[in-house]
Amino acid sequence: SFCFFSFRSSAKLIAPLGYLVSRQKHTLPDLPYDYGALEPHINAEIMQLHHSKHHATYVNNLNVAEEKYKEALAKGDVTAQVSLQPALKFNGGGHINHTIFWTNLSPNGGGEPKGELMEAIKRDFGSFANFKEKLTAVSVGVQGSGWGWLGYNKEHGRLQIAACANQDPLQGTTGLIPLLGIDVWEHAYYLQYKNVRPDYLKAIWNVINWENVSSRYAACKK
């Protein structure tokens, strides 16, 4: 959510405007592995299109929306600020979600997590198998496009499963801290799995980077 500033005092504008003027543009992060590294589970063509086209488009559109927002803020045009928020949410969410997603995957992934994360999964879901089944079911059940997530509820100190529509970012829309995201937009799997989303979701468990998920869990508990 975005803050609206009082225009009675120009002093209140200095900080946000200064930040926006000096802000670096968002850039497309490099993948930590080659496009073909996740084969046979996710093929190279999907990864290349997904990263270099889809994610890149979210980054470009986010930069455009932020530039327009900066102008609207400078003019005190609250109507324009409000009208830009869907674009900021969609493209900002797309950038946030995919930046997490690439690190959640690894050619050396799969298997089961260890240590504290595994203990938390057993505590909050009964067993790893039960957790896997629940996250898969939530991800299969997303209507249209969206994401399945394992998140951390800081207030209650527990793991939680959630689904988000479109590119809604998990933390910005639910308050849960994202640990593991599963992209169920068709562009994430259609070239390989056609319309059979459950087959893609069965395969993706072979490339989940549990080290990354575990380090995210450790970081949000601090």
Please supply descriptive tags for the structure shown above.
globular, Mn/Fe_SOD, 3 strands, SOD_C_sf, Superoxide dismutase, 56% helix, minor pseudopilin epsh fold, oxidoreductase
Structure description:
The chain has 222 residues and is mostly helical. The chain folds into two domains: 44-104, Helix Hairpins (Orthogonal Bundle); 115-221, minor pseudopilin epsh fold (3-Layer(bab) Sandwich), CATH 3.55.40. 56% of the residues lie in helices and 10% in strands. The chain has nine helices and three strands, in the order αααααββαβααα. It has a three-stranded antiparallel β-sheet. Helix 1 (11-22) runs antiparallel to helix 2 (44-75) and helix 2 runs antiparallel to helix 3 (78-104). It starts with 10 loop residues before the first helix and ends with a helix. Its cofactor is Mn(2+). Mn(2+) binds at residues 50, 98, 183, 187.
Task: Count all strands and give the number.
Answer: 3
CATH-defined topology of the largest domain: minor pseudopilin epsh fold
Looking at this structure, what is the CATH superfamily of the largest domain?
Answer: Iron/manganese superoxide dismutase, C-terminal domain
Rg over C-alpha atoms, rounded to the nearest angstrom: 19 Å
The overall pLDDT, averaged over residues, is 91
Q: For the record, what CATH class of the largest domain applies?
A: Alpha Beta
**What is the name of the CATH architecture of the largest domain?**
3-Layer(bab) Sandwich
Strand order of the largest sheet: 2-1-3
Which range does the strand content fall in? 5-15%
* Count of alpha/pi helices: 9
- Residue windows where pLDDT falls under 50 for at least 5 positions: 1-21
Total domain units: 2
| Helical residues, percent | 55-70%
Oligomer: single chain
Shape summary: globular
What is the rounded distance between the termini?
25 Å
Instruction: Specify the structural class.
Output: mainly alpha
Major sheet description: 3 strands, antiparallel
Encode the helix/strand succession as letters: HHHHHEEHEHHH
